[in-house]
Amino acid sequence: MGKKSRWNQDEVFTNFIRENKENFYRLAYSYVKNSEDALDIVQDSIHKAIVSIDSLQDLKTLKSWFYRIVVNTSLDFLRKHKRVSIVDAETMEFISSGNEDQYENIDLERALDHLAPEYKSIIVLRFFEDMKIDEVADVLNENVNTIKTRLYKALKLLQIELKDEMIKGAN
Amino acid sequence: MDKKLEELKTEYKNIQIPDELDLVVERALLKSKKKKNGYKWLAGAAAAAVLFIGGLNISPAMASSLAEMPVVGSIVKVLTFTEYKVDKEKYQADIKVPAVSDLENGDLAQSLNDKYLKEGKELYDEFMLEVKELEDNGGGHLGVDSGYEVKTDNEQILSIGRYVVNTVASSSTIMKYDTIDKKNQILLSLPMLFTDESYVNTISENIKEQMREQMKADENIIYWVSGAGLEDEDLTELFETINKEQNFYINNEGKLVISFDKYEVAPGYMGVVEFIIPTEVILDILVSDEYIH
Lengths: 171, 293
Known about the structure:
The structure holds two protein chains of two kinds.
Chain A lengths: L2 H30 L2 H18 L9 H20 L7 H9 L7 H10 L2 H12 L4 H8 L3 H14 L6 H5 L3
Helix pairs in contact in A: 1-2, 1-3, 2-3, 3-7, 6-7, 6-8, 7-8
Chain B lengths: L2 H11 L6 H18 L12 H9 L1 H5 L3 E2 L7 E11 L3 E11 L4 H31 L5 E12 L3 E11 L3 E11 L4 E3 L9 H20 L30 E3 L5 E5 L12 E5 L1 H4 L11
Parallel strand pairs in B: 3-4
Antiparallel strand pairs in B: 1-2, 2-3, 4-5, 5-6, 6-7, 8-9, 9-10
Pfam families (chain B): DUF3298, DUF4179
Keywords (chain B): Membrane, Transmembrane, Transmembrane helix
Protein name (chain B): Anti-sigma factor
């Protein structure tokens, strides 16, 4: 790689991080639920990214690549601190079957937090970070069909009904 | 969009952004860039110290910070030669510069002390520069804490570890060791302990084994090492081998200890990490069992 393109890559990367830092922070925060740890994850992610940026083949994949680092760093953190309480699908359905009609905000939030991380990540990336379904698949390193299946399941667990276009993310 | 989903999204978008985020991000970008270009901190010794040696005798403030560390059973001493201090509301720096004294080998003492002073001064200058940049950009918090600890001091070996901790909302740490053979009055380096360069491989493989074992035994421990079930192995720069001049010291039991800075081989929360290399692993390639046994 020539010097010029190397410089470009650093420049593009730095700008990308600066412009989207608040998104990264929110994403990290949505997993770890406290500010100090979320800041740590942002810092670790940037660091990881810089040491391995040479493995990035194409700057076009920068976004999904970096988001993947943030998601994985967050999951590693949760695993380490065991703050995550993973509830399987059946338990979830059992918990939510009692109050089917009106969710209070707080219950809804808790319901989202109780989703297993592989479901929660999809909801957050698709609907809060406004990614398209194939972008989500890129970030999470899964194929589109797997992501779709999980998304339907996650929405079902949250008792949310959406039209099909909503799920895929229209252009 | 569905009402529930809308609510959740609003909650998400309302997550408050702490003031420190800017600084954490800028720091991370800056630090990483430095790492890529190699730390200035480790630049070789030069004669930049001359100016400050005078300062020790002249300034009462400097002289009063001269605290002696008692070293039992030997004449070589490590003491705080000078200290740079900044103590303002938002900016704190405390840089203690060590000096070794009473080494019979005057050249060795001189070159070590010159190096310590030069690096301490550079650290201070760098800090003041960062403060200035920060002021120009609207201000913020900044802190640096540097000092030293005597890791080992026995009949044979004196190991001094110097640390630099940069603190903002979270911190980074750099560690640097010097190990002196007190009897022969020489500074030890990693290559000179071994008969050939095979130590790089032997030690690296042993460390990787230790990393994997620790990760298996305790899921709270993470190292960037292959074959340990890391989530994002393909994304991380995995630990391959130590440097020829990797940070090391010799502990009181005569064991070789290899040290890695924060972020060098593990995520930030692991901090500075050390591995004690079992002597039997390197026995065949040691020059002698004088230091390590």
